[in-house]
Amino acid sequence: MEKGYLAIVLHAHLPYVRHPEHEDSLEENWLYEAMNDTYIPLLFVLEGFVEDGVDFRLTLSISPTLSSMLVDPFLQSRYLNRLDRLIELAGREIQRTKPEAEFNALAQMYHERLHQVRDAFLNRYDRNLVQAFKHLQELGKVEIIASAATHGYLPLLSVDRSAVRAQIGVGVDHYQQFFGQRPKGFWLPECGYYPGVDELLREHGIRYTILETHGITRAKSRPRYGVCAPVYCPSGVATFGRDPGSSKQVWCSIEGYPGDYDYREFYRDIAYDLDLDYIKPYIHRDGIRVDTGFKYFRITGKSDHKEVYVPEWAERKAELHAGNFMFNREKQIEYLASVMDRKPVIVAPYDAELFGHWWFEGPMWLNHLVRKIAYDQKTMRLTTLSEYLEEYPVNQVSTPSTSSWGYKGFHKTWLNGSNDWIYRDLHHGASFMERLAKSHPQAEGLTLRALKQAARELLLAQASDWAFMLNTGAMAEYATQRTKTHLLRLNRLMNEIEAGGIDEERLSIIESRDNIFPQIDYRSFG
């Protein structure tokens, strides 16, 4: 009999980067890279467990923006074109590297990997990765939880309660449309919690959410078991806290596993090493060098000198690190079980894109870890958070602290001198949208279309991704452009609705570009 539980939670999210107005979009590559490196490899691992009869549980959140892109026929077609170009590049790389055996072996590895991904995308998943994850949920192995509509940072949107209600409500409705049931759990974007948001989660039937560590440890009253057991908010929503030890081991690139010198070097891609004339057909059409995914070197060390990547070494290291992680969780659970009146739960949430994209060996590590837990120990068992609540429905009541998993644990990442300018317009738009929803309770025809599009534009402007990019300085120009574009479209639509003169031709163009949430109810802002 196990003494405790490990709950692995993967949060899969990308901002809405659909750009039909461009023949070649730099930002759409974020999606294609994540499909190649993370989502399809994760499906291979999880389906391997099912095929081999390995008992496992995993919690997965798929943000509405990501799931919308994954089922979009336009983006699916572009992804397939991208895959075909990379397969062509792999063939050329096999020829180019023939004189260098180590590089040639890696080129053949990428060639085989890309073919496997393409075959699975077309024939195994029928281009629909969301359906593949849904099937794993139907088998009872993966619990998929909901998230906010466009990943808005809810604590800073809470100036307008209707804005938070809409982010949650549209996200929950979207989940139900895609997965055919109401969600049990909800991923708060950036783990951004503030007292009161749980009440809105409760309105939509949410049973639990996940917070950063100090959201629980600084709660009032102080939780008896820290983050090793859930606490109920006064609203009745359960909150689980992130375990800092398990997170650091996997997430930290300096002290954690991903920084190991035998693992693949993320930043060394042939797109930047090879002659432009050779690589140009496989990067951006304007000659901008973007990652191809062909990376031939291992981390090696902290210097610029890099040695050739050896997949067999990386595989062995992934297995070793999986064993180390399991051993540490065993010892942690053994101690906690001796001082608690219930089985402890170790909650380990990560960005899904860490596994495979940023940390190439991440899916390997997960594969070894789950199999080791199933066969090599008896101290713990994998669980989902709803299963834990079913076993332990009675828990301490406490009010968690305002918190996030951003820099220094609060709002600084999303509110500072680089990005504070966005909030005045976001709050203004939310207030205006609320008034429009109340003044048009039963809109029809062109007015209905305009109101729905106005709601989409506001939600897209609220995405936490833009403030994050502005804060880091990476893609700041794009983040500024996206924020201003959505706000300008919103303001024009609101003015046209109030004036009773809607430009249908212009509205149709916007609808075709920002076509997320086709069934949206604009009254979510009411």
Characterize the structure shown.
The protein has 526 residues and is of the alpha/beta class. It folds into 2 domains: 4-71 and 128-264 and 309-408, Glycoside hydrolase 38, N terminal domain (7-stranded beta/alpha barrel); 415-525, Up-down Bundle (immunoglobulin/albumin-binding domain-like), CATH 1.20.1430.10. 51% of the residues lie in helices and 8% in strands. It contains 20 helices and 9 strands. Strands 1, 2, 3, 4, 5, 6, 7, 8 and 9 form a 9-stranded mixed β-sheet that branches. Helix 1 packs parallel to helix 14 (362-375). The radius of gyration is 24 Å and the shape is globular. The mean pLDDT is 96.
Give a topology summary.
Layout lengths: L3 E9 L15 H25 L5 E5 L1 H7 L2 H24 L4 H24 L4 H10 L3 E6 L6 H4 L3 H19 L5 E3 L9 H7 L4 E4 L1 H5 L13 E2 L5 E4 L2 H8 L18 H4 L2 H4 L31 H29 L5 E7 L10 H14 L4 E3 L2 H7 L30 H18 L5 H17 L2 H9 L3 H24 L4 H10 L13
Parallel strand pairs: 1-2, 1-8, 1-9, 2-3, 3-4, 4-5, 5-7
Antiparallel strand pairs: 6-7
